[in-house]
Design a protein that fits this description.
Elements (H helix, E strand, L loop, with lengths): L13 E2 L9 H7 L9 H18 L5 E5 L3 H12 L5 E6 L2 H12 L3 E6 L8 H8 L4 E7 L1 E2 L4 E2 L3 H10 L2 E5 L18 E3 L13 E5 L1 H8 L12 H8 L11 H17 L1 H21 L16 E5 L6 H12 L1 E2 L1 E2 L8 E5 L7 H17 L8 H20 L1
Parallel strand pairs: 1-12, 3-4, 3-5, 5-8, 8-9
Antiparallel strand pairs: 2-10, 6-7, 9-10, 11-14, 13-14
Helix pairs in contact: 1-9, 2-9, 3-4, 5-6, 10-12, 10-13, 11-12, 12-13
The chain binds pyridoxal-5'-phosphate (PLP).
Amino acid sequence: MTQPIGELNPPVRLMLTPGPSSIDPRVYRAMATPLVGHMDPWFKGCMEETQILMRQIFQTENRVTMPLSASGSGGIEASVLNSLEEGDEGIVAVNGVFSERMYEIGIRASSKVIKVEAPYGKPVDPEDVRRAAKGKKIKIIGLAHGETSTGVFTGIEAYRKLADEVGALLVVDTVASLAAVPLHVDRERIDICFSGSQKAISAPPGMSPITVSPAAEEVFRKRKTKVQSWYFDLTTAMNYWGKDRLYHHTPPISLIFALREAMRLVLEEGLEARWERHRTNQLALIAGLEAMGLDLLVTNPADRLPTVTAVMIPGGVDDAKVRNQLLDEFNIEIAGGFGAVKGKIWRVGLMGYCSQKANVLLFLAAFEKVLLDQGFRVPSGAGVGAAIRSYSQVETAAAVSR
Ligand SMILES: *Cc1c(COP(=O)(O)O)cnc(C)c1O
C-alpha cells in the first residue's frame, strides 16, 4: 500500500517575484464563493461588471475588452494571431524574453515579422525601428511596456508616433505594468493591449485581460483568412463577452470572481495612488540595495520598471544559494535571471499586493543576513537605513505639498 496523500497545505510565502504576486484575502474569499454556470443570467451580469472594471483599469472605452482564459502568454498569442495573416509584415521591439516571445509567435504564424533589438537592460531605440520599417508594409509594431526579464520600462509615445507614420497597429504587452505604471489605453491610442491577472493586479494566474481598439477591430474584419487559432479568435470570443452572450468555451468562472474582486481593490485604492505606491516602494528598495553596495542592471533610472528590479549578482556569490536561503529561512521568494542574464541577476518583484513598505524593509533585512552568510560583506543595517530615509523624503515632500 502506498501512503495516502495528505490534504493540500502549501507554505505561506512572500512572493517578491516578477509574478505571481501574493494575494489580498478578499480575492481568496471571492474565489471560494459558490460556482454558478457560465450561461446563468446572474453570471452574465457578473461578466458585464468584470468588463466595466477592466475598462476603467485600462482607461478605455473599447467595446472589445475581456479576460482571455489564458495566462499572459495567451494575450500575446491572441494579439499576434488576430492581427497578422500569413506573409504579413510586422516589427517587434525585442529587449528581453517576453518581447522575444511576441516575435517568436509572429514567426510561427508564418508572418514576416522582424525583430529590432536592444542590449539587455535598455529599451529599444524607436529610431532603430523606424529604419527597419523603411520600404516595408508594416502591419503591427509590438513592444513590452515592461520587460520583466530585465526590469526595463519602455515609453509608448514614440512608438505611437511611429505606428502612425507607417500605418501600423500598436500592440503593447502590459502584463508586468498594468495597475502599477501609468497607462491610458485610449489617450495613448494603443490598438491592442493585454495583461496578466497575476502580476500587479494580484489575482491568481490564469487570465489575460485584453482590449482592442475600433481600428484593430476593423483590421480583424478585413482578414482574408481565418485566425489560425480557434480558441484565441477574438471575434468569436466576443460573441460570448459581447451582447449576444453565445457560448464559446467554458471560462474559468472562479478565476473571473477573483479577478473581479482584485480589480475592485485596484479601483478602491485608485490608479494614481497605486502607481505612486509602486514608485515609492521601488525607490526605497533601490536606495537600500545601492547602500548595500549592490549594482542594478538598468543603469538609467528613467528606464526602470517600477514592478521589477534587476540586481547584479556580485562576483563570488552563489545565485541559487542566496535564493534558497531566502526561501528556507524567511519564506521569501525572489527570482533569478533567464535567457542571456541567467546567473547574472536576481529579480526582485514588488507587484500589486506585494508592493508594501513592510515587505521592502523585511526583504532588505533578510537579504543583508543572507548575503553576509554567503560571504558578501554588507555595512550593518545600511540597506534598511537607506530605505527608511527614502521613505521619509517622500513623506516630507508630501507633507510640504499639502
Ligand atoms: C509574465 C509575463 C508574460 C507571460 O505571462 P504568463 O502569465 O507567464 O504567460 C508576458 N509578458 C510579460 C511582460 C510578463 O511579465
